[in-house]
Every structure is written in C-alpha cells, then in structure tokens.
Design brief:
transmembrane, 20 helices, 0% strand, 2 domains, mainly alpha, 73% helix
Length: 550
Amino acid sequence: MASETLTQTPVDTAILQSNIDSPSESRPIEALQIEEPSNEEENIAFPTGPKLWSTMASMSIALFLSGLDITIVAVAVPSITDEFQTIADIGWYSAAYGMSLSAFVFFFGQIYTLFSTKAVFLIGIATFEIGALVCTLAPSSAVFILGRAISGLGRGAINGGLFKLLKQCFPLSKQAMVNSLLSGVGSLGLITAPTIGGALVDAFSWRACFGVNIPLGVLCLILTWYGVHESSHHRENAPVLTLKEKLKKIDFLGTLIAVPAVTCLLMALQWGGTKFGWSSWQIILPLVFCALLFTAFGYLQYRQGDKALLPPRILKQRSIIAGMWFGACCEGVLAVTEYYMSIYFQGVRGYSPTKAGLLALPMVGGLSVAFVISGLGTTWLGYYYPFMLATSVLTPIVSGLLTTIDFEEQVTKAVILLTFLGLAVGLGLNSPMIALQAVLPVEDVSLGGAILTFGAGMGSSLWICASATLFQDRLANEIKLSSPGTNVEELQKAGLSKMRESIGPERLKSVLGGYENAVIQTLYIPLALAVLTIVGSLAMERKSIKKKQS
C-alpha cells in the first residue's frame, strides 16, 4: 500500500516481509517444521526463549510501524492539502518515501552483508523515527516531504534487516509460515491505520498521524537492543575483514548515481503535464539525466562484479527479477487505489477522515486474510507460484469493476470491491519473499531482499507520481467540462476535502461529477498494472520449499 503503499503497500507492502538472530534451549515453534533442515542449516543454532520472542516482537513492531506509515498518509492527504493550500505536491507525500527507500535499499542490502545486523537495524529504526518527527513538526509542504524522505531512508535499512533476521531465526521449511504470521501482525498497521489516522485527524490534526508512531519506535529500539544478537550464519572459510576492507567493498559510487537517477525520474513524472508541458526542457532534461545515470549505474554494476550494489550472481536468478516485477505491479495497484479511494471518500462523498478510514478497512482486512491463506497454503503445498497466478487472474477483474463506481449509488459497492481487491492482491504478494528464501544462500538474502524492496518502492512511487499527474490534469479538465463557470485554480487551493465548502449548492453536483470522473480515470492505472502482474507470475521458477537446498 502506499508503499509505503499500501503497501505499500500503500502497502510496499513489500512491506510485510521479515527476519531474526541468536541461540538457546527449547524450540517453541517446533510444530511448524515440515522436514529436516537443509544441509546449509544443519550446524546452525537457531535462537529460542526470551531473546527469540523479543526479536520477533521488535520485528512485528517494525512491520506494524511500516504498515501504519504507508497507509495512514492516504487518509491524511486531504487534510494536509487543506493546511498547506495546494494539491500540487500530493504525489510527493508518498513518492518521497518510496524514492528514498528505493534509492538506498541496495546500499543497505550491501551494508547488511558486511556489518552487524543489530547495529544497522537499530540505525534504521532511529532514522525512521526521526523522519516521523520531522513530518509531525513540518511547517510547510516541502519540510513534510523531507520528513517522508527520511522515513523512507530508515525503512530501507529496516527492510534489509527483516529479511536477514528471518533467515537467521528459522529454517527454510518454517519461513513461509513464520513470514505469514509476522505479516499478519505487521498488517495490523495497515488495517488500523485508516481508522487510527481518521480518528487522529478528527480529534487533533493530521500531524498526530505521524507523531503517534514515535513511542512505539522507542519500544522497538529497546526490544531490538535486548533481543538481537550477532548471527553465527557465515561460511566456514569466509575471511574476517577489517573496517577498512569492509568500506572498500561498499559501492558508494553506485549509491551516489542511483539517488539522483531515481529523483530525476520521479521529478519528471510529477511535473510532466501539470507544472510543465511534456515537451518542455524542464521535463526533457530530468529524463535525459535519468537515462544517462541509469546507464552509468548499469555499467558500473557490470564492471564491479561481486562488489557491486547489484551483484550479477543475484541478477541471474530468474525468480528474483520475476518477483521484483510482480511486487512492483502489486504495490502500484494497492498504493494508487488506496490513495485515490481515500480522496474519493472524503472529496466526492464528503465523508469525515474517520469514516473514510473505516471504509478503507475492508481492503487491508482482505489483504491480511489473504496473507494467512497464502502462508498456510504455501506451507501445505510446498509451492508459492500458484498464489501469484491467482493474484494475476483475480486482480484485473476486481480493478476493472472498481472503475464502475458512481457517487449516486450506495457506497457498499465500492467497499465490497475494495475487500475483494485486498484478497486478490494479498494471495500472491508475499510469494516473491518466499521464492527469495528458496533460491538464495543466507549471505545473499539481504541483497535479494533489497531488489524486491526496490521493486516494491519504485512500483508505488512511480505510479503514485504518474497518477498524481493524471489526476490533477483530469480534475482540471473534467471540472471545466462539467461546470464551465468554476474557477479551477481557486478550487484546488481550497484543498481536496474543502472543495465542497468552496462551491455553491447549485454547482455542487456538476463539480462532484467531474471530481469523480477524475478519480475513475486515475484508477485505470492500477487496472493496467494488475494485468501486467502476469509477466512476473509466469516467469517465476517452480521450486518447492519442502525440498532441501543444495
């Protein structure tokens, strides 16, 4: 949901992935074992007891906060536009988070292979909370966007640690089940965010939506400090590196190229067609720089080999690339749908933030139920790709039906369709994570997870930016068509949730009709992305998690 979507999903929802560390005595989750551990796992002492549960609690809180932060922004957006008196930046409120996450995720994937998992994870949580604090105190739209970018940076560090911790705590045969259980706990953030966010906006202000996760972040830091110990997962012949040698292995240049490349792309998508024309130099120049920088990044990765941010040995894994594509499309579906349905409920329907949040619950509820179904099903079948295929078949159908909503009909139709959309996407959303655990050795899991996170972050960020451009363009045109005498610029300055108050009753119906048409036309983006998920589903390798890894 607004990966950060939902997923980003949103939900990023790539977002709902996980990991752990340390030894002890009894094995409290023994019932989840399917088969004996793989050869790679035979000599590993997995953590147990209070340390295990503290680490699992810290992971769950981290996932909860990530889900909360991704979903809550969609409910807050209309109120934020009211205070800052602009809708021009609505795409950046989510895209800045995803941009920062995507640009640095490979860097943190590499960092986790060289430095203490515990230390990097703690830094990630602290950075995430600093971003939340900046958002809470932001005096302007620009500062709020900066806070979102800082939170995205912290999220990038957290994600890599979650992948690593899950691999360190459980054998492969248990990871599908544990991942789904943790995802279910983490998805509470997604489920409760619309309601919590709406209630906070109504009772206090939109700022409380971001300040609320700071106390939980402090608790997460304490649990991580106590529970996570350094892993014994390493190859027997692996050399011990000095700090200087570790720093030499980090691809700083690749990161310095990746950050402006992603930024230029999102700037062009956000400004094109609204602030500047697509043929203007202000759009062409960022696109040219983006192409040059991505070309340079690709060449650098090729030349550096195993020292690169994206080692060729990982990119050669078909399942990783297929999973990245699939995740990017799914996160785009969730992020754009959640973003604009929240705008629809508050702007077109005139509902309060609390009611709009309650109406968003069925989608994230469906997503959470689907996580449990897919986790149990994957553990039973031993295969994850059937659930990806189910997502690719069902999601386009539901997304297509969602474009038929009408504000003169009962809202029940939209709510039911959102429920089924959550179920459809959730069935396959976690499958790339399981594929990652099945095809990569432990030392490459963080880098593989970084690729999946990059896909999820870029999927939500790119399409939130593109949808914001489309929405603003269509909103202006549709209102001009439906209500020719309306001053569109003044209407947009009023903010998304106060548009109704700024127009007379004689023009209300025609303006709302144009508003609804703009939302519906924006929803064609997630419909197209839903269709494109089939590419990732068909490309995924058919591996069993019940078989031993070689």
